[in-house]
Specification:
The chain is mainly alpha-helical. Helix content is 68%, strand content 0%.
Length: 59
């Protein structure tokens, strides 16, 4: 699933996004193409937002 296929406003957990990041690296074999790099960057931003949300929720 690419980040583009996630509906705007939907929220995935940091663990779900982390799993997507891991899967991307496995598919890429450790070297990202330009397209994969763009997907990775979007996933990292989504992961960071999810982490912030989980930290705020825990507080």
């Amino acid at each position: 699933m690419s980040p583009d296929s996630v509906a705007p406003g939907s929220v995935r957990s940091a663990a779900e996004v982390n799993e997507q990041i891991r899967a991307l690296w496995l598919r890429a074999g450790g070297t990202l193409s330009a397209q994969e790099r763009a997907e990775y960057e979007l996933l990292v931003v989504e992961w960071a937002a999810a982490m912030r949300g989980e930290i705020i929720e825990a507080a």
